[in-house]
Amino acid sequence: MKHRLLTALVTLLACMTASTARGDGPVFDVKALLAPPLETQVLKTTEHDGIVTEEIKFLSHVDGTERIEIFAFFSYPKGAKALPAFVWNQGGLYPATTYFTELGARRGYAALCIDFPIPGAGYRSTGKYPINSGLELPDDPRKAPIYYGCVALLRAVSFLESRPEVDKERIGMSGSSWGGFYTTLMTGIDTRIKAGSAMFGSGHMEMGNGWWGARAVNTADRDDDFLRLWKEALDPATRLTKRKVPIAWFTGTNDQFYWLPAVCATRDGALGPTHLVLLPNWNHGLTPNLDDQVFRWLDIQLKGDKPFLDVSKIQVVGGSGGGKDHGVTAATFTWTGDRKPSEAWFAISPGAWGAWSHRIWITVPAKIEGGVASATLPPMPMGSYIYGTVIDADHNWSSTSITRLDSITPDAPVTADGCAEWGSFEPAGITYLVGQGFMNPTVKPGAGRNGSQAIALVKGGNAVQPIHFVPGLKHRLTLWLRGDRTHADKPAAVTVELTGRFDNEPNTRATTARITDEWTKVELDYDVPARVLVGTLGLNITLHGDAALVLDDVSFTPVTPNR
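Above: the chain sequence. Below: its structure as tokens.
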């Protein structure tokens, strides 16, 4: 394996200089890929509430003897001429729908969404490339499934250029998840794309992603030679260091697919104007406001709307910046721009590198004065990661990249709750759980122990998640259960289990309890490993017998400092 990859790498590098003049170097010969006629066909046209939507197909490329034709939806306001436009790339690269094309048309764009040439039910494009199966890379990068998705998107931009509804100088790209990955990659490849806006997605995949995962555990085909070839051939960050194009990323700090350090490194290395929004303790989902901000970024770049606040890097005030010095007391960051700031805060995540999908982020309100956000930082018994966010009066977020704080205060307690986002099961917590696909619990109005509601548990197992944690600390799970008084009062035996997996090593703790129709407190202690690349933790509550129970006030808090 290693010999084959080294041979491929040498061949790739040898042809780089000669190929550069053609466009994107040895992998994407953009000029040649765009040379064949587009051969566009409109299959169907509909109109609703002033929005025209066409079902179209166009030629992507010829693979051997097979013509790869791309199906797409194209929407625009009736009578449109020379509008800004964007290509929307679906989350998961799912089959195209009209949702985002019509959303774009209602916002004053001409918008296109393609079926990627992927096998499976619902895809109307030809071509059977397993593009969304993983980040695969054969010896010839032009045989990688991802490559064929890029070719289809190059031709999608050509389709937009061909239409009178589109101003070819104002074409952008946006997408979610896999679509955010392609948005990041294509914004660097295609010079016709004037702005990118990625809802999740990144480059620098060697810094962590949900496909390669715990590289320290499974290195069969992810050795250094593979990673070097990937970085040169297909990684989305590589080209952004060479092309000055506006691009933004919107993500949760705990996204399991595109790890936070990779997102920040992609942003920090990009040559053009960038924007970043980090939503603390969220995984692969955003709030409705931040969903909309994805498109407000395109409005700025393609319509000339007022720019978002542009933030600086974080500066640490006091201390030497490393070691057990007790000296770090505060942090600051600044911003420029004409928008009025209304709120700012810092988010701190204690612990060593890793466990990005489940590590906790603790928010600290910041003082705003004269274009500066500042806050005194809580002492931590270990090194931490930190970033800052400022929110303007129109609810637009602007976040810094993460930075490392190595200064520590030995024996300092950590005040945090790994279930704080949802553990009270109030409406905001239910929105958090449902919006990210963690749970769809049955809410019991009026049944809350302290708040307005609790949730009902079902017979058998109940997965309750996510649980965030501080690596290296002992934590205590606390929860409250009682019988559901809408059923017969029957004492119930339950098993409460914390199920963790850390770099593929299981770590489970459990306790049992007997629950009546009065609120009963259940506690369980759990030690989280200090250094782990991939770490997950969930809660399962198993009901034995026929009794029905309700659950409320779940918390997971550190109980001892790091030793």
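The chain has eleven helices and 28 strands.
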